[in-house]
Amino acid sequence: MADFSGFEHCVRENEPLAPFTWFRLGGAAEHFAEPTSVDELAGLVKRCRDQETPVRMLGGGSNLLVRDRGVAGLVIHLSGAPFAAVTTDGDKVTAGGGAKLSQAISVAVRDGLAGLEPLVGIPGSVGGALRGNAGAHGADVGQWVDSATVMTNTGETITRGRDELRFTHRASNLDELVILDATFKLEPGDPVALTQRMQKLWIVRRSQQPTGDQGAGRAFKDPSGATASSLIEQAGIKGIRVGGAEIFDRDPNFIIAGPKATADDVTQLLELIQSQVHERVGVELERELEIW
Ligand SMILES: Cc1cc2nc3c(=O)[nH]c(=O)nc-3n(C[C@H](O)[C@H](O)[C@H](O)COP(=O)(O)OP(=O)(O)OC[C@H]3O[C@@H](n4cnc5c(N)ncnc54)[C@H](O)[C@@H]3O)c2cc1C
């Protein structure tokens, strides 16, 4: 059992993870930390390294399925204020890794900076968005990143500039343990026009995706030349379900977990969709959703 003495004020044992994820499923984290400063975070990371405790970062939990048996080691959640600030300086917006992506977008739009607004409605944190290069409407978060500050698994803090960063479809080379913050270099725009654009996109999105009060998650990456949704549709399997998990009727690339669903139901449904799409349409879908 890992020893977190000295960190009792910010580390809890056997913390249920379901409330921190969009699926609202799965077991507990053996240890769960909400550090209150960067130094404290570095201390925790070093402690994990010294005692070989596995450590994972939790953002908004919108791209995660936690297995029913839970997670060994330490899960770190950047919920503290030092990780959530969003500030503007000229044409740049800097957002903490724990800030909501929606907040970074709102601040940019309010301050007349264009670029991030097509991403409105993507749930989760800035850290999670950068890790997986979240995107929508042909735009992605990575295209606007000017630099990112990260923490390695030794607790060292490094700033990586644009030329060191690579973003591809739902992936990035930001593979250090923690994304502490990101600076976006944006373009000048009219706040009123940007707000209107953002509101329109948000209204459309709300009608097409599950709401936060349903247990839900997005399943697969879009393979080149097609969307995962259209391939699932083509396979003619929209009505299938496993236990309490089913395909969302308005967009088949979302899985809905009903009140009686287990994480195991969701993983089985994901596998069934993959095998059926492969058999009927000949395409191997790659999972976007991360399973812990
Ligand atoms: C309703 C719905 C709609 C969605 N729509 C879209 C969409 O349009 N486009 C899209 O791209 N995705 C979409 N997604 C998927 C998801 O919202 C994105 O992948 C999102 O960016 C994940 O961010 P998160 O903070 O929730 O990350 P989490 O799910 O908490 O974590 C995802 C990964 O990021 C890592 N991570 C999180 N924070 C940090 C950090 N600070 N430092 C290092 N690593 C970190 C985690 O360890 C994990 O590996 C949608 C999901 C849902 C449920």
Describe this structure in words.
The protein is an alpha+beta fold. It folds into 3 domains: 11-81, Uridine Diphospho-n-acetylenolpyruvylglucosamine Reductase, domain 2 (2-Layer Sandwich), CATH 3.30.43.10; 84-207, Uridine Diphospho-n-acetylenolpyruvylglucosamine Reductase, domain 3 (2-Layer Sandwich), CATH 3.30.465.10; 210-291, Alpha-Beta Complex (Uridine Diphospho-n-acetylenolpyruvylglucosamine Reductase, domain 1), CATH 3.90.78.10. 25% of the residues lie in helices and 28% in strands. The chain has helices at 38-50, 101-110, 126-131, 191-208, 228-234, 263-281; strands at residues 11-16, 28-33, 55-58, 64-65, 71-77, 86-89, 92-96, 113-114, 135-136, 139-140, 145-151, 157-161, 167-168, 171-172, 178-185, 187-188, 215-218, 241-242, 245-247, 254-257, 290-291. The strands form 7 sheets. The protein has a 5-stranded antiparallel β-sheet. The two termini are 19 Å apart. The mean pLDDT is 96. It binds flavin-adenine dinucleotide. Flavin-adenine dinucleotide binds at residues 22, 56-64, 78, 97, 122-125, 127-129, 131-132, 134-136, 170, 178-179, 209-210, 216-218, 290.
Total of helices? 6
The secondary-structure element order is EEHEEEEEHEHEEEEEEEEHEHEEEHE
The ligands found in this model are:
flavin-adenine dinucleotide
Radius of gyration: 19 Å
Count structural domains. Answer: 3
Main sheet? 5 strands, antiparallel
**For this structure, what is the CATH class of the largest domain?**
Alpha Beta
Number of strands: 21
- Gap between N and C termini: 19 Å
Specify the CATH architecture of the largest domain.
Answer: 2-Layer Sandwich
